[in-house]
Design a protein that fits this description.
The protein is an alpha/beta fold and 290 residues long. It is 29% helix and 20% strand. The longest helix has 15 residues, at 74-88.
Length: 290
């Protein structure tokens, strides 16, 4: 499959960059990425899908080539995604979200029920209901992500820095290359800087605010497949990004939810096994459950 077609669209007073593979007349698959990532992290998944789909991945606000304009409250990401789907006038789409992207997909589907056929949530950041009753608040600049190195001589320097470090060492090498190559923007001096600035990424974590969407979850009529990895500690202070934040009973909270547990993978399921994610999108009924 060739490189994606790149587009821009105005959504709710910001510019959203988005990428398109496959047949423009085919069924739409909408891919929403995780915090700090970007739409081109889905390249390997898009290439593994049949070219008869119209596969669409967007850079959410604050990420990639899209506007770096707040606020970064998680409700805003869901509203942006709903507006994006309206702008493209999508119908019977398959909504796919990883991590924060799964949270946004649920919000968008609940407000645009008629535009989705079904959902695939890849280790979404949706916690147990009780976790939202006492969610701790913190300042964005206090998050360790805010101090992350942002500037590099080239994307290959970033790749060389990450490839032997956890959790990146577990990723498929082509996906890590996509993450690095498309996750930076060029500086005037010829170097590159992260396309999702550390200050923006930390603001997104602070802006999650323990956003409880269980009312939306209970209202969804769609078939929903939840794919999850082994869990992290219950405390939100434990920032082990390789472990799953997904409530282990989340699938049962959806009226038509199914659970698929991958004990052999980390939170970064699309980065480790993009072919498996493509199968989960195209053939959800054959994805094994515990």
């Amino acid at each position: 499959m060739n490189e994606p077609r790149e587009h821009r669209v105005r959504v709710r007073e910001i510019e959203i960059a988005w990428f398109e593979w496959g047949d423009p007349s085919g069924q739409s698959v909408v891919l929403a990425h995780a915090t700090g990532f970007h739409g081109r992290c889905w390249d390997a998944v898009a290439k593994a899908l049949d070219s008869g789909y119209r596969t669409i991945a967007l850079d959410q606000r604050g990420h990639g080539r899209s506007s770096k304009t707040g606020p970064y409250d998680w409700r805003v990401f869901g509203e942006d995604l709903a507006g994006f789907i309206d702008q493209l006038d999508l119908h019977e789409a398959i909504g796919v979200g990883h991590s924060m992207g799964g949270h946004a997909i649920v919000q968008a589907a609940s407000s645009r029920v008629h535009r989705f056929e079904r959902l695939v949530l890849i280790d979404p950041v949706i916690l147990a209901p009780e976790a939202y009753r006492s969610w701790p608040s913190f300042a964005a600049d206090s998050h360790p992500v805010a101090r992350r190195r942002a500037d590099f001589g080239s994307w290959t320097e970033l790749y060389d820095r990450l490839r032997d470090r956890p959790p990146f060492a577990l990723w498929r090498s082509d996906v890590l290359r996509d993450y690095c190559r498309h996750g930076v923007v060029r500086r005037p001096d010829g170097g590159v800087t992260l396309a999702c600035p550390p200050t923006v990424e930390s603001a997104i974590y602070a802006g999650s605010g323990g956003t409880d969407i269980y009312r939306e979850i209970r209202s969804l009529p769609h078939e929903v497949l939840v794919v999850r990895a082994p869990p992290r500690e219950a405390s939100p202070a434990q920032m082990d990004f390789s472990r799953s934040p997904t409530w282990h009973r989340l699938a049962a909270a959806f009226p038509r939810g199914r659970d698929a547990y991958r004990a052999d993978l980390t939170h970064f399921i699309p980065m480790q096994e993009p072919d498996f994610v493509a199968r989960a999108i195209a053939e959800p009924d054959v994805v094994s459950c515990p």
